[in-house]
Design a protein that fits this description.
Blueprint: H1 2-29, H2 31-39, H3 52-64, H4 68-83, E1 90-92, E2 98-100, H5 114-130, E3 134-140, H6 143-146, H7 155-173, E4 177-178, H8 181-188, H9 204-218, E5 226-230, E6 234-236, E7 258-260, E8 263-267, H10 272-277, E9 285-288, H11 291-294, H12 300-308, E10 312-314, H13 323-331, E11 341-347
Parallel strand pairs: 3-4, 3-11, 9-10, 9-11
Antiparallel strand pairs: 1-2, 5-8, 6-7
Helix pairs in contact: 1-4, 2-3, 5-7, 8-9, 9-12
Length: about 375
């Protein structure tokens, strides 16, 4: 035990030593460029604006150290191998599983964000109801909840589970329909992976399972039959890998790309109602949400069309979170014509985002 502890301590000291050694050699290599840039700064200290020296040095390093990025990636890979750690933004699990740190935000309180969330969702439901439209929430549980067995400490997964269950229960008390996606994903994972190991998102299999749950819950009347077609397989570079190392080194430490098999849906034959009533009524169901819905790699809207038997208008957006796309949808009054149901795909982890309902226009990581 003592030998292991000494090895661990020595290894932790080795990483900063590597960085220091790299910095020393790098600065010697570009000493002339540094001296030239600094010589152009004002000689009078009073004329040096705040941050001018730092900006000057940053410019030199960016232009003269093209290998600096690789050095950071190398240290990140070493830290992952030696200690099973990544940078801020990721929680490293077992067997190459990575989890977004966002899922662990507000972990001390499972109720975080639920009251505000339900209140704001109720406002949206009232707005849609005034147009004769039914809102169905499609809450997505945390990846750390579904794959808790791959966490070093599953206490956080229990909190995520309770947050999901409390959220769905609170929606029910507010008389807002919500699909039990968690149950569907837990059943489906026994056959196929429903989340990617190194990415925040679900797999097509996970999306298909949830689409089936939506169809079973919604009671939407089928209008047509949709056939699913296999599309070429795609490789996915996990969006969480960058918090550990870069693409060049990721495969060598077991964090290589993953392969998914997307599908698309097409109607076997046109439904009579859609032909007669025209374009505005071709989409009785609208899908609003995040990149889980917007990215066709996961095939969620196609699976919904196949499961529901109706055309789905997909207005989900990548990188905007769940709130901005809904507000954009409501602002486009023309999109409210012809819909009878709106599905709002809503990852539960967003409830802990402090400024979620401020709906900033800037992109957020999904």
């Amino acid at each position: 035990m003592q030998i292991h502890a000494r090895y661990n301590t020595a290894a932790r000291l080795l990483l900063p030593a590597m960085l220091f050694g790299y910095a020393l050699v790098a600065n010697v290599d570009i000493r002339h460029q540094l001296a030239g840039a600094l010589s152009k700064l004002p000689a009078n200290l009073d004329q040096l604006s705040h941050g001018l020296i730092g900006t000057t040095l940053e410019t030199v390093y960016k232009s003269e150290l093209p290998h600096r990025e690789f050095a950071v990636e190398l240290v990140g890979a070493a830290r992952y191998i030696l200690f099973g750690e990544g940078r801020r933004g990721v929680v490293v699990g077992k067997g190459g599983w990575l989890f977004s740190e966002e899922e662990f935000r507000g972990a001390a309180n499972a109720d975080t964000g639920i009251e505000t969330g339900v209140r704001e969702i109720s406002k949206v439901a009232d707005t849609l109801r005034s147009h004769g439209i039914r809102l169905i929430i499609v809450p997505l549980p945390a990846k750390s909840d579904i794959y808790r067995e791959n966490l070093a400490d599953d206490r956080y997964a229990s909190i995520a589970e309770h947050r999901y269950l409390d959220f769905v229960h609170s929606l029910s008390l507010a008389k807002i329909d919500a699909v039990d996606t968690r149950g569907a994903l837990l059943v489906a994972k026994t056959s196929e992976p429903v989340f990617l190991k190194t990415d925040t998102h679900w797999t097509p299999a996970g999306a298909k399972a949830v689409a089936g749950a939506v169809a079973a819950f919604s009671g939407i009347v089928t209008q047509s039959h949709f056939a699913l077609k296999d599309e070429p397989k795609r490789t996915v570079e996990g969006d969480l890998v960058k918090f550990v190392t870069g693409e060049r080194l990721a495969p060598s430490i077991g964090l290589g790309h993953e392969v998914v098999a997307p599908q698309t849906a097409s109607r076997d034959e046109a439904g009579p109602l859609t032909d007669i009533l025209g374009e505005s009524d071709r989409f009785p169901v609208a899908l609003v949400g995040t990149s889980y819905s917007a990215n066709d790699t996961w095939s969620f809207s196609s699976y919904l069309e196949a499961a529901l038997g109706v055309d789905v208008l997909n207005v989900a957006e990548v990188g905007r979170g769940p709130v901005v796309p809904m507000r954009n949808f409501l602002a486009a009054n023309s999109q409210l014509e012809g819909q009878s149901t709106v599905l709002w795909e809503f990852p539960v982890r967003y409830l802990t985002e402090p400024r979620l309902w401020d709906a900033p226009a800037s992109a957020v990581r999904e």
